[in-house]
Amino acid sequence: MYSVLFVDDEDIEREAMAAIIPWKQMDMTLADMAWNGVEGLEKIRMHRPDVVITDIKMPVMNGIELIREAQKISPLTVFVVLSGYGEFEYTSQAMELGIRHYILKPCDETQMVEVLQKVKEELASREQKQKSEQEYQHTMRRLVPYAKGQILRELITKQELSQSDKLLMKRFLGTAENNFMLLAVRDEDQLDQLDRFVVTNILSELMGESNVIMRAEADHQIVFLIPAGLRGNIEPIVKKMHREFSKFRKAALRSAISGSGRLEEVYELYCQIQELWHLGKLEVRQEFLSRESLRSGTGEVSMMVDYRKIRQAGGFEELLFEIYTSYVKMEVRDFSITEMREAYQLMLTVLYGAEEEGILTENAPWPLVRQTVEECARRQGISMPDTNDGRRMQQILYEIYRNIRNQDLTIQYLAKEILYMNENYLGRFFYKYTGEKYSTYLQRLRMSLARRLMAYYPDIRIAELAERVGYPPDGQYFARVFKKETGMSPSEYRENVKTKAEPRQGAS
How far is residue 507's CA from residue 312's CA, in Å, rounded to a whole number? Predict the structure, then answer.
């Protein structure tokens, strides 16, 4: 039933309206009456009526002033204006206030009932609209987490998003220019629905609900998409979440955090998470896994390989460069052949799920590197063309890398002493296949390797670095070539990479 307030300075009008209008029949009730605008405003504050019928011309406060003030305290109230002939100025002001219902004085029961019926229809329509909106909002609140979870699952499994999911993602995330991280939480035992609910709620409280952007379940873990800006604070937050969860259920939660990237890189971020779970087997005591935490732990063997770059290798030469780089990293640390094989076996497990032992059998460094390259190439479907030229070029690349530390690795030496080929033929063949001169290629390769080593070992001595990439150990010639190639001296570059991420430069 809708409540009505009647405001009019004429006693006879108020009494007539109270008596002749079939209020109950119209599903309305006359809540109160007032004789001027001031009194009417007070009773609006008191009753918050659905409808106010007000005269325009009244003492103390007229109808226009009443409406203007009442709309501030009761914006949903519908106003009906009583006006007489010659009150157009007032009526026009009422129209400016959004008033749509008018009754011309003097009025009778029929007019009043007709207008009130329209008001009633308006109120009913508004209520239905509000109800529909509430139902929609309720439905959306239930569906949004599911929709977000579906989108995140599609992103981490590298599925093509549907057009509708793309629209939803834009709605949920706005611009795709922001950087994100993935946080994954798992237990030795599979987390049930209640466990996942508790973990999500604890994290939402600790990080702020707005920072838990998306959540999905995959491979017996809960995966959260969170802003990259939380990186500096994420470890203590996660460890506190572990402690709070243990109050709910005794469990050995472990969490892993990826690097940062944009939305289109979420699949790569998820691959990093999977790598960390595998790598974390070497650090069973760590409850929070990140590349930084593993680097500082005892699992150094796991950090010699850049899994992401190997996975993203677009060709044989790029794959060869990445694996050879990992070999030199291990060589700098004086890894034994057993440790090298362990690192490469772990890499195969992380990248391809190759758990079986005995895949890598070689017991000397270079044969082990070559075997690893060929195993990765086979599993990733990467190869040189299966032609005489392709096989010849692959052999040339192998020999360049195997002998890269040799300061005399000129095209003459390579042709005569290693490949037993005609020098001129080798030069023409190499240029035809690569599009650049052998000397240019070799210098670029050595500089790429030097940059990568400095990025990983910023404290490496320049003399040692020079020797490992094929330059005299005094480092002077190496320094001149390096500055010409990069625009910085080795010392300047080394200081630069201590504070910045490794430059994305490869050897291809």
Answer: 14
Q: Which residue from 244, 260, 204, 196 is spatially nearest to 222, judged by alpha carbons? A: 196
Concatenate the DSSP letters of all residues of 343-356 into one string: HHHHHHHHHH----
pLDDT in tens, 112-139: 899 999 999 999 998 888 888 877 776 6
Residues 358 and 438 in one domain: no
CA distances from 266 to 151, 341, 456 (A): 11, 30, 25
The type of residue at 237 is I
Question: How many residues are recorded in the chain?
Answer: 508
Q: What is the largest CA-CA distance in the chain?
A: 122
In a domain? residue 506: no
Which residues touch 145 (CB under 8 Å, ≥6 apart)? 215
Q: Where are the alpha helices (DSSP H) in 184-265?
A: 193-207, 231-248
Give the burial class of 121: count Cβ atoms within 10 A of its Cβ; 0-12 exposed, 13-18 middle, 19 or more buried: exposed
- Residue 441: give the domain boundaries: 391-499
User: Same domain for 194 and 293?
Assistant: yes
Beta bridge partners of residue 288, listed in sequence order = 255
Token duo for residue 339: 């440790």
| Shared domain check, 256 and 320 | no
Shared domain check, 398 and 367: no
What's the pLDDT tens digit per position in 341-387? 988 988 888 788 766 667 899 999 999 999 999 999 999 999 888 89
- Say if residue 478 is in the same domain as residue 420: yes
Task: Judge contact between 484 and 419, C-beta under 8 A.
Answer: no
Upstream peptide bond of 49 is cis (omega within 30 degrees of 0): no
- Domain presence at residue 140: no
Q: Are residues 243 and 328 in the same domain?
A: no
Backbone φ and ψ of 181, nearest 5°: -130, 160
Name the helix (H) or strand (E) containing 15.
Answer: helix 11-20
Asked whether residue 413 falls in the same domain as residue 379, the answer is: no
Rounded to an integer, what distance in angstroms lies between the CA atom of residue 436 and that of residue 231?
43
C-alpha distances out from residue 90 to 7, 241, 310, 353, Å: 16, 64, 79, 82
Whether the model clears a pTM of 0.90, i.e. scores above it, the answer is: no
